[in-house]
Amino acid sequence: MAEEKNRKVKIAEKILDKNDLMAAVNRELLSAKGIFSINLISSPGAGKTTILEYMAGYFGPRMAVIEGDIQTRRDAERVERAGCPAVQIETGGACHLDALAVKKALESIDLDAENLDLLAIENVGNLICPSGYDLGENMKIGLLSVPEGDDKVMKYPSLFSTVDVFLINKIDLAPYLDFDVDRAIEECRNMNPDVTVFTLSAKTGEGMDDFCIFLESNFH
Ligand SMILES: Nc1nc2c(ncn2[C@@H]2O[C@H](COP(=O)(O)OP(=O)(O)O)[C@@H](O)[C@H]2O)c(=O)[nH]1
Ligand SMILES: [Mg+2]
């Protein structure tokens, strides 16, 4: 029994190693092109695509987007309508993106396009699996929305203890719900002292320009 358990651990390590190697290839390629990259992770419906639509209005063709979903091209179409190029990955069932899928998607993006500063990757909606896969991004961003409840920070530590940036979205709904913003931020900082936090409403635009300016400050 104990032997079988050990064998399972070894296999899991091997798969992650392969992903890490591919992530390093992506990171090197993007860095060589002078493109800053972010990996946006949240549960389904927290507002990832709405945030990217706002960002498409702010950055225009300075941003390209890779959309990850199990099925449909809907999010890529939304972002394209909002004003920037987008490529859709349909995972066909996988609950997260991996570095190889991103590498293939990068082949459909003109990385030499003039003024391209930012690659935004919207991961498959899920608070668990995406947190374990480096895609080669420069910045990992975890997003929680007000209707989900402030307790989710501590319930999903694999994500919120490892993100560079913690976004709280749908702040326009705070007056109607019992989400404790201070508690969510405090619990995230307890696990992750260096995390940068923004409270936003992608719907009303509150906090969005500050977030975009912060991203810009990281461009090469
Ligand atoms: N009230 C409110 N609704 C939002 C906000 N951001 C997104 N939504 C809504 O939440 C729903 C899911 O958003 P979407 O961007 O598709 O989430 P995703 O699945 O994380 O990409 C949509 O109906 C959005 O209009 C926000 O800041 N406030
Ligand atoms: Mg989406």
What does this molecule look like?
This protein has a single domain, classed as Rossmann fold, CATH 3.40.50.300. The mean pLDDT is 94. The longest helix has 31 residues, at 2-32. The protein is built from eight helices and seven strands. The chain has a seven-stranded parallel sheet with strand order 3-2-4-1-5-6-7, with helices on both faces. With 220 residues, it is an alpha/beta fold. Helix 1 (2-32) packs parallel to helix 4. The radius of gyration is 17 Å and the shape is globular. Helix 7 (181-191) links the parallel strand 6 and strand 7 (196-199). The protein has helices at residues 2-32, 48-59, 74-82, 99-106, 152-155, 157-160, 181-191, 208-216, and strands at 36-41, 63-69, 86-90, 118-122, 139-145, 165-169, 196-199. The N and C termini lie far apart (52 Å).
Approximate shape: globular
* CATH topology descriptor: Rossmann fold
What CATH architecture do you see? Answer: 3-Layer(aba) Sandwich
Determine the number of helices (DSSP H or I, runs of at least 4 residues).
8
Question: What is the SS-derived class?
Answer: alpha/beta
CATH class: Alpha Beta
What is the domain total for the residues?
A: 1
Q: Beta fraction of the residues? A: 15-25%
Instruction: Tell me the span between the first and last alpha carbons.
Output: 52 Å
- The residue fraction in helices comes out at 40-55%
